[in-house]
Structure formats: C-alpha cells, structure tokens
Amino acid sequence: MRRTLYQLCGCVLMVSGCMQATTVMPTAPSPTPANQPVHTPAVTPFPTTPVSTPRSSATASPVIPTTPSDTATVVAVRQYAFPVAAGTVVYGKDHHDYPATDIFCDEGSVFVAVTDGVIDAIVADDVWDPATDVSADRSGRAVALIGDDGVRYYGSHLSQITPGLAVGQRVRVGAILGYTGKSGNARYTPPHLHFGISKPTTPDDWQVRRGQVSPYLYLKAWENGESLTPVLDQN
C-alpha cells in the first residue's frame, strides 16, 4: 500500500510539472529601432463641402443655335439729300396759294436727286409766254423724279437739264439732274429752284406736280443730314 501511495504521489508531481511547462507568460513587445519610421494607415477625410455630380448628357436639354432665317429681309435706311448741292440758299415755310418751297440760290447751282429713284418727266424747253401765261408752262425747264419711297419730287425754273438725262432712267441720291435758273414764270424774279413734293402723277397734271405737301420740314431735315421720308396725304 505504501508503494501504491508513492506511485500516486509521483503521478501528481508529474502532472503538476507538466502544467507548469505549458504555461505561456506574456512578453513585452520588442522596441522599434529609432531610425525606422512608424507606418500609419492613411485615412481619407470626409469632404466638408458637397460635391456636385454633373447631369447625364442624355437628360440635358439640347442647346439649339439661333441662326438668321433664310427668309429674313434686311431693310436699309433710305438716304436723302438736299436738292441744291452747294452754295448759299434761302427758303421759308410759306408759299403762295399751294404747298411748295422756293429755294433761292445762285443761278447755275446744282440741282440733285434727293433720293434713289427713276426719272418720271423732263421738260426740256422753256415755252412760257407772259402774254398767255399758260399754267402748265409756268415751270419752264423741269425734272420730276419718283423716288423708291413712292414720292414724286419736282424741281423747276432750271436753266439747263443734265445732258443725256432721260425719262425712265434710274438715278442715285445726289445725281445731278440740272442747274438752277430763271426759266418759266421765274423770268422776272431772283433765281430759285421751285421744289414740290406730291404723289406720283402724269406729267401733264400740273396742279399736282407743283406740290401737295409742304417740303419745308423735310428740307430742314435733309439739310441737317437726317433721312426723313415725306408723308403724303392719303386722301
């Protein structure tokens, strides 16, 4: 029995020794060398401002460039010129018994087209006779122009018509139509250009051709370089 007891005690001691041999004691981490950098994982910061996401090009509204229409019409500003091209002129607001303007100037002053248009009538000969005083002959030498604005412009008492000027001929603003003088019933007055504005009419309609609308307002505008189109009475 004593032998058995000794055997049991030996087994206990063996087991106790084994348990001590398998116990793992915690060890301190090995120090990092001073010259070796410490690696720290990179951390992406959260954005402090919202990030805009572009719209899908499929849902964006298309931008359609604007181009001039093929049928668009460009209207140029019509040009006008004072009927006497150069020199000293004198004219007033009033005219005797019908609307017109007598522009007094030196004889031989240049009479020009006040706007683009077509020559409507030419009176080349001075046939006025003071003894008979025919109304249609009082103009003396004269030229009428129908402008592209639809207005008839008439200058009379000319001393000369521009050579080669013909009815139906197209002229530009400022074209020389003739030269001022004292023909017709201006024979006994200072030289001047009788200037009339009217609707288009026949060359023999002397009552209309001499003037329907006072030219004064338009003459002042043209003299100042303004392009003012005459307004005719629609009646």
Find the CATH superfamily of the domain at 101-221. Glucose Permease (Domain IIA)
Determine the number of helices (DSSP H or I, runs of at least 4 residues).
Answer: 3
CATH architecture type of the domain at 101-221: Distorted Sandwich
| Oligomerization | single chain
Question: Helix/strand-derived class?
Answer: alpha+beta
Mean pLDDT: 76
Strand content: 15-25%
Query: What is the overall shape?
Result: globular
Question: What value does the Rg take, in angstroms?
Answer: 54 Å
What level of helicity do the residues show?
A: 10-25%
Order of helices and strands: HEEEEEEEEHH
Largest sheet: 8 strands, antiparallel
From the 3D structure, determine the CATH topology of the domain at 101-221: Glucose Permease (Domain IIA)
Strands, count: 8
